[in-house]
Each structure stands twice: as structure tokens, then as C-alpha cells.
Batch of 2 targets.
Target 1
Amino acid sequence: MALVVQKYGGSSVADAEKIKNVARRIVATKEKGNEVVVVVSAMGKTTDNLIQLAKELNPRPEDRELDVLLSTGEIVTSTLMAMALHGMDHQAVSLTGQQAGIQTDSSHGRARITRIEPKRIVKELEQGNIVIVAGFQGITPDLNTTTLGRGGSDTTAVALAASLKAQTCEIYTDVEGVFTADPRLVPEAKRLKEIGYEEMLELATYGSKVMHPRAVELGEVYRMPILVACSFNDNPGTLIHGGVSMEQRNKVRGIAHDLNVAKVTVLGVPDRPGIASAIFEPLAKANISVDTIVQNASVKNLTDLTFTVAIGDLEKALELIEPIAKSIGASKCVSDSTLAKVSIVGTGMLNAPGYAATMFRALAEQKINIQLITTSEIRITCIIAEDSAKDAVKALHKAFELERLEI
Amino acid sequence: MALVVQKYGGSSVADAEKIKNVARRIVATKEKGNEVVVVVSAMGKTTDNLIQLAKELNPRPEDRELDVLLSTGEIVTSTLMAMALHGMDHQAVSLTGQQAGIQTDSSHGRARITRIEPKRIVKELEQGNIVIVAGFQGITPDLNTTTLGRGGSDTTAVALAASLKAQTCEIYTDVEGVFTADPRLVPEAKRLKEIGYEEMLELATYGSKVMHPRAVELGEVYRMPILVACSFNDNPGTLIHGGVSMEQRNKVRGIAHDLNVAKVTVLGVPDRPGIASAIFEPLAKANISVDTIVQNASVKNLTDLTFTVAIGDLEKALELIEPIAKSIGASKCVSDSTLAKVSIVGTGMLNAPGYAATMFRALAEQKINIQLITTSEIRITCIIAEDSAKDAVKALHKAFELERLEI
């Protein structure tokens, strides 16, 4: 008997009919002889609506309270799913993050799972239950509810799969899997049959919304195969795993893009040791992820320091940076939130030159100006104007002949 | 420094504006130098909406799952209230029933509080917080969420007040206090300034919706003074306590009515020992409260057994009773759900005859047929046709001259 962990996202459980549809899929998995643990997200726009409600009470709700509020969304779905399964004559029980033993640190709003104590889940499985776990949430040692941040239900699912030594972790969503680019931008984009953890991690981090990067990372650490597929049909989806066949590796695998990019430049920074940490430590303490950092060559002992953050963090970042810039003698801060990142990802580029050149040429042909460039071993990212993003993705998809990919 | 427990019902927290209004009242109490613990209900129609949603998934949702689902309603209000208080620059923290230490038995849907472990509340109060507790819910020894049944937030409030040795427990609602009869039926009904626990218990049990009877009972056991008042103004409300002045005791204090009455009659029951327990034990096991029980005088060793239940329990009661009736040789079961109870309540009637006669005469003058009569030491109840309830309450209010009551 295999143990399967399935996760269903918000659009897959948006209303009573969709919950029943998912319940039928769960029953089918169970009836194949599997033990099933299911992680659910909040229904449709529930989380957004709760945030809206919170802001009516307080424009800046405290993270601790917001976590308790938002955690109710997933709890509601979990009980409704259990009820739907009972209606289909199957034993099922819903568990909150706390009951499922998901222990986290105290970073409200973006908590990290520290440990999973799956005793209760194991007991419920032994009693023949399908176990429905409210995703996205956990509990601190002080018994305060936390949430794992947006997309955290993916993380819940992979972490549970690893902890329970499941055979696979299946992430069901409203898309058919991982594509060579966003099909809404590039209609000829192809679904990938499989992809390696590292490549998926880069795609997810650099804008592919299919899966949360933390969940991919966890999958890689625990070597947990993750299937991403659509909850509305039986198409095969994309398998994320470690053993991607050799010949598929020597290629650009996909184009990611991200419109959630803001840039901050601190101008006229004195070029001396300790300046970078003076600027970036307060951001780290405020839990603001800084992505790309570029420091220009110093002229007359002054340099410009540029970095990017998510648009939602821009205001807070500027609040923190402006007084620091002043205190270290920088001339001023400027920011721009009309930017996009486009990235090409593939393990192939690790040992083969020419990818960067092809990328830059493709963008140049579209007269797209590149503002910043960053790279990893398997990724090249260009930061460009937001309104060029669509043209850039289309051009890159074509330049790397991804529409010819055999899946 | 006094400790005050306040409870705000669903209509008092129905939207963001009303929550802010309540937050202002809480702040006023705190600024008078009190420590404040607040128990909140779910917003407006939330509980009804969640039940509706559950029934879309499963016409008979399992009690355990329904409890988890419904408990989210109060949790949402508690966090929003804490956020509103933060917005008014006051320290506040929301606690779930579990966090507040409200331990219950495992009777899902109508759990009883077994113990309160207020350690966390005390800690939060010591840190200067206003503590907002999600009402209506608790946790079993197995860490499953329970609910206390409709109106259970009143019970949460009084139990917490007793456990914390609060000075008073204040129940805020959308009515001005306890009236001599429902003011919607009897416009000349008067608000009572004070009332004894026993009288309030009878009024609440027999239909006054102002407070949950269990909460009144708890108040009596722990001699906790309970103020019932309106959350939308500063009118004085009604104080429920033990020391009601002597001269106010010799009177009928109020008329209660209840439309939620169904009657079951088992016809032709063999009159032998053990029959009543054969019929009522299964109902008790199914957690169905049986109210009035009447057994006719036996004719030819056969009797008719009549009892009343809440309308919501009728279907389940009949399912249980019909096979039993058959097995004990009764001829058949009949039921009627178009009934009402009207009751007069007052400690005065304990030692003074004539109250029953006045009541029956008043009903007779309205040509209202009395189907069943039950009494306690301080109450007389008549079961009549539902469509006569309004006339009956008006006639009784007049017959006992309650409109002349000085408050």
C-alpha cells in the first residue's frame, strides 16, 4: 500500500461543486489501494477577502493576528472536504496545521517549518481515514498559529510527504503542469513532461507561478518526486524529480518572467568596507528579500548601489534605507517599480557558452533595453521595462526554439 | 484594578464598523482602569452561512467536522477585534478557545466545559493585553475542536468570568436587557432592572432569547453577577444576580414564549415498568433534550406518552422512537410541530396560589386551547397552538399587570 500526498490549490476548491470534484479524485486515489493525505488551500479568493476585511479594521494589521485570521480559510476547506468525502461513504478527518503536527518558527506571515510530528496523521491513517490537512499553517512552540506565506500550502504538502515518506507528492492546480513559458504570453509554449529540481527552483524563483520555490527546494532536499498537474482533467502533468534523463539536460528548459519587481538605487555611496552590510542588514531583519544586487565600479571613491525587491516590500524598504543612506553620506535614493525580470533556465548552459549571447541578441532585436543582468549556474536573468516583458518572453521562446521541444 | 469579562454577540460585531464600535466600548472599559477579557461571537450570519455551505457538501455533516468549521467564525471575529484595538493604540491579543484553555467533553455540537485552564489568559493580562477570546468553542483531551451549541458564547463568557474571578460578566447584545415579555409581541413590555438567577433561568429555558440558559445556570452556581445590556447605547440593561430585593419577589416577573416546539405522542403504550426508560434512554444517548413529558392515566393497561423536543430534533427523535414503539408493542407514533410554549415566571408564585388560575382564565378568554401543562416551583408553562402564541403572551402580560411594573 503506497502513501500519496496530494495538494489542491485555491482555484481547485473554489466552490462546493469544485470541492466535490476534488473529493471524487481523492476517492479514486484511495480506491486504487493508496493511503491518502490531502493538503488543501483556502477556497478561491478567501485569503484575499480576509486580508481586505482585516484592512478595514486596521490598515496595518499585526502579523500575529493576521496569521490567525488567514489560517481559518484553509481550515474551512479541510472540513468541507472531509464532509464531501463522508457523503461519498469514505472515512475522512480534517486536521488543522497544529493537529497535523506542523511546527514552525515564530516569523508570523512567513514562518519556516522547523519540525513535523506526524503522530496524529499516522494514527488517523491507521484507522482507515483519508486525512485532510489545512495547508499554509503551523504552530509555534508557544502555541501561536503561524502561516508559511503565500503558496505555503505547496510547502506543507512536500514537507508532509517527506516526513511521512510518501511515494509521491502531487500538486494539483488550475494549470496543466510546467510549461516552457507562460502559455498566456506564448501560446506555442509546451508542457514539460519532466524537469529537474534545480531548474524548477530557478523557474519558480524567477516568476513561474506553478509552484512555490520553497516547496521545490524541500522536494530537492528530501528527493521527493513532485507531480504538478491539473485538478480539472486527467492529463499527465509535469514530474519534478532528480533523475532527469541526460539528453534533455543540454537545453534551455524554460523562460520565466516576473512583473513583481521594484528597483532601488542608492546614489553616491562612499566606497568603503561595511557599507553593504549597513544597507542590507536592516532589510534582512525586516524580512525583506533582496534579489539582484549590483554595485557599479567606484568613481572618485563613490559608487551607486542598486538592488531589487518585490513591489509589496518597496515602501518598507525605502523607509528603512533612506535614513541609512543619509547617515552613511550617500547623495540620495531613487526607485522604480515599473520593471520586469525575464530569465532563461536550463542545466545545459552550465557547460556551453553562447546562451547569454543568444539571449541578449534576441532582446536587442526587439529593441528591449537591459537594465541589470544577473546569472546563476543554470540561469540568466535580465531586468527590463515592465511593458516589454511580453515581447521579451516571446522572443526568447523563439530564439531558443522551445516550441520545437518534444515532450 | 477590577477584572471585567464582556461578551459581544453576533449582531454587535456584524461588520467592520460595528466591530470598531465595540472596540471603542472595550477601550472605554480598559481606560477606567479595568483588566478586560472579551468573548466574541461570529459576525452576523456567519454561522448560518457556514452551516449552509456544509450542507451543500453533505446534507448531514458529521458533528466533529461541523464543529471545526463553525469554530472559525468566532476566531475570525477575535482577530479582527484585536486588530481594531491595535488601531486604537491598545495592546490586545486574540485567543482561540483552545489557547484560552477551555477544555470540554467530546459531545460535538453541544460540548460541556469540563475545566478552564486560564494560564495563558492570565499571562496575557499581566503583559497589559486586552484579551479577546473566540467564544462558543473548546478543545477535548484528544485536541479536537468542539462547539458548545448555539448561544455558547454566553457560556464561554460566564465560565471565564467565574474561572478568572472577575468582578462582573457583561453580556452585550442587540436588545436593551431582559423584558417582561418579548417587546416585538408586547410593545408595552418593560425592561427589568434586575432579576434573580432562578427566574432568569426559567425565562431563558422557556424561550427568552436574551441569554443562553446554561450561562445563567453557571452564573448561579458561581454567584457571578451578569449584566445584560445593549451594545449600541449606554442604557443600563438588566442585572442578573442572587440578591434581588425582597419586595420584588412576590410577583410574576415575565412571560416567556418559545415557538421551537414539537410534540411526539406514542399511542397505546403497554403500562409496565421500564417502558419510559426504553423510550427516553435512546433519546438521551442521541443528545436530544426532551422537555415536557406527560403520561395519561392508563386505560386497560395502555397509556399514551407525550413529550416535546426542539423542532430541529424532531426528525431524529422519530427515527429513534418509531422502531422502539414497535418493539414494545405501542400502536403508533404521531407528531406535531406547529406548537408553542408560553410560560409565566416568578418566585412569587412559590407561596401564593391563584397564579395558575389567572393564567388559564386569561388563555380561556382568548379561546386558546391548552394542550399540555407543566410547572416548576417558579414557572407555569402551557403548550398551545403556534398561531395563538402572540395573543397568549399579550393576554398574559395584561392579566398579570406587567405593564405597570416599576423598573
Note: Chain B touches chain A through 38 residues (CB under 8 Å).
Target 2
Amino acid sequence: MIRLFVPFDLLAEAPVALDPDQSRYLAQVMRRGPGDEVLLFNGRDGEWRAAITAVTKRAVQLRLVGEERAQAFGPDLDLVVALVKRARLEVIVEKAAELGARRVRPVVTERTNADTARLPRLRAIATEAAEQTGRLDVPELVEPMRLDALLAGWEPGRRLLFCDEAGDALPVLQALAGQEAGPWAILIGPEGGFSPDERARLRAQPYAVAASLGPRILRADTAAISALTLWQAALGDWRP
Amino acid sequence: MIRLFVPFDLLAEAPVALDPDQSRYLAQVMRRGPGDEVLLFNGRDGEWRAAITAVTKRAVQLRLVGEERAQAFGPDLDLVVALVKRARLEVIVEKAAELGARRVRPVVTERTNADTARLPRLRAIATEAAEQTGRLDVPELVEPMRLDALLAGWEPGRRLLFCDEAGDALPVLQALAGQEAGPWAILIGPEGGFSPDERARLRAQPYAVAASLGPRILRADTAAISALTLWQAALGDWRP
């Protein structure tokens, strides 16, 4: 069934109307009409079944017919990722949504050669991926900041899995063995790697765990997907 | 340093010449000239440092100056993947190369809606990814076949990790716990999933291990990357 992320509250029996883009998608692209049902979620009120009551020129109107799932969130996991080329950053945001990250924080590192991200586009990608993957929230896209500023203001209690391709770190599963769940972040560097200063600074943080992603050189998108997967399997909601 | 996969033998001191495409890439795109060094590998003779001796209109000529690494192969791992949309299949082939699969076997399943793959293009993608990721071989791209034919002629001794989104299978790490390394394959279905007949048949195979990839719906490329990552971490060359 089609799932849509909507901004409005979801309350039993309430009539609701979709915005022009979603109305066009539902009525014209997907050819849904009165009586057809869709699923709606807003990141706060769970997932609701809704039936189309009318399709006008301006909007698709629906009535909420029942709550399918109560609101729930995945693990409190941030993906901190160096700004990489636009196409690869878009893939990373899509995959972060599928793999259950709660936030994506683009950062500027010494070897990053981009310093802007098109956040509205990235937010649209995150929303569409969240709709498709079945989660009940959309990952937050945070304004890019410098890595050193992020580390200087690091949130107390949040641990950091730091994927260190250059070093002799343990593989991720071994590095995470014995670690506790709770707030975590995964840090993926730029394709040129971290600078020696950045590596030294990261390795000196008491909240940071360095880990290796195998014997081959990975592109940034592959590294992000692999690290998210292993973290979910070790400490997240892929555990039995 | 630039790495190139070449078809010819690599023998100490031997003069070699690159084909027109690689010659153009090296001389014109990357602007390398006499005295510059590159790395060559052919999947048989290890990795060699080679110095450019001449750049002519027809070819870049080199002399092999030393073996950097002896030939080695990753685990004997096949990725069996349903034919999905072209762009996603290309991503899957790139990632299979980065994540150390030895072969990619596209298959046609009941719910596959494509039945052709552009193998020359997929082979070029696999080669470029192998060059970038640092491996000493290129994954083999096998001609597509039907899933039922592949199962009917299954290679004795090869185990199969079957990613079963619809079932109640254990998560991958738990499903692989206690399994032995050796020849394995990973099977990724089409975005529409396997048919009930296919699932029943797969689950009945003594060599097959069903596993789940977490609580969210994954696109085929994400599922392939996650499964390859977890297999490598559990039984492959990402182990300590």
C-alpha cells in the first residue's frame, strides 16, 4: 500500500487534505480515487489507514479510518558524514533512511572539497525513502557544520563509531563487542580520508571507538551502508 | 597510485603496451608520461609496479619494475541477484566488487520483470570498481539464468544465504553463527520478493540458510550491500 509522510496531525475520523504535490502523485501518477486507501504517518502519531473521500482539482481529501501501528522510533543513531559528491551524498541519505538512522549530519573536514549540501533535496530523498522502507519517522537532516566544531560541542553520553581506514583498528563487530546500546553516531570520512590531525583528535576522544571496514578501499557510500548495517546488527534493531 | 586491470601476463622486466582505451585514459585524462608509475594486475600474476617508457599515438608503453603484492583471492563468495532495474543492478555490481564477491550471477525469478543484463557494461563496472578498491582480481559476471535452473544444478558443497524478507528468519549474524567458511553464495530477490513457490523451494534446500535483514523494507541494492557486509564480517575476510 502507498505510504505518505504528512505534516498534519492524525486523529481518528478526522478529514484531511493532501498538499498539491502529494495530491497529484496519488490521483494522477498512481491513479487512486474515492474509496482507495493509503497509509499516512507524520513522525508523531503512528501510522494510519486513510480512505480517499474526494479528488478535486486542488486536493485529494481523505478520512482516517484506523491506526495501523503506534508511533515508534528506531535506535538513537546519527550518521555523521563528510560532504561528498552530490550523487553519492544522495545515495547515503537514502540508505541512512532505509537502515534506520535517526539523523544525518553532513560535516566539512580538512579534505572535504564540497562545503554545501542541498538540504531541501536531501530532505525530500529522506522522506521518500522513509515512506518506502516502512519506518514511522523521517531522519532529520542537520545543517552542515565543521567536524572540529561538532567534536568541540559533542553531546555528552553519545558514543562515536569512527571508521578509520588508515589505521590498524579492529573490525567493526569486534570493536563494538561489549559496547552498550544507547545514543551512538557513526562517522564516515571523505574519499580522501581524514587528515593526520583529525585522526589523532578522533582517536583521543573518550567517546570514540575506531573500527575498520575490511581489507579493501570502500567508496564513501559503501562505507556508510556497511557501517550502518554492522552497527544495527551489533547494537541496533537488527538484533534478535 | 593509478591501478589498471590488464589482460596480458605480468613478468619481471617485460615491456608491455596498454590498449587504446587505457592508453588514452592514462596519457590524456590522467596526463601521465614517461617515468610515471602505475600499478597493473591481471587476476593471475599479482600486482606489479610499472613505469611508462613511451607514449605514442597508438599506445602507452611500460616496463614492469617490481612485484608489489603476490596474487591472492578473497573468499569464494557468489552474489546471486535477481535482475533489477539497470541503474540498481549497476550499483550492485560495483558494490559486489568493493565488498569482495568473486562472482555475480544475475538470475531471472518469477517476479523479475527484466530478463536481460548488459554484461559488457556490467563487466566494465566490475573492472573499474576492482581497480579502485585494491583487489587483485575482477569479479566474474556470469550469463543470467533462471533461478530454478540454477537451483537444479546447484554446485555441491556451496552454501546459500537466502535473504528472506517475508519470513520469520533469524537475523543474518545469528543465522550464520556456527556456520563454516568455504564456498558460499548470497541470494538477493527482486523488489517484489520471491513467489511462495520459490520461497518454499529455497527453504527446502539443505544447503540454504534463510536470514532476515532487519525490520525495514530494503531496496535490492541496500539488501545486497548489507548481506555482503554481514557475510564478510561473519565468515569472510573482514574477520580479525
Note: The longest strand of chain A covers residues 60-69.
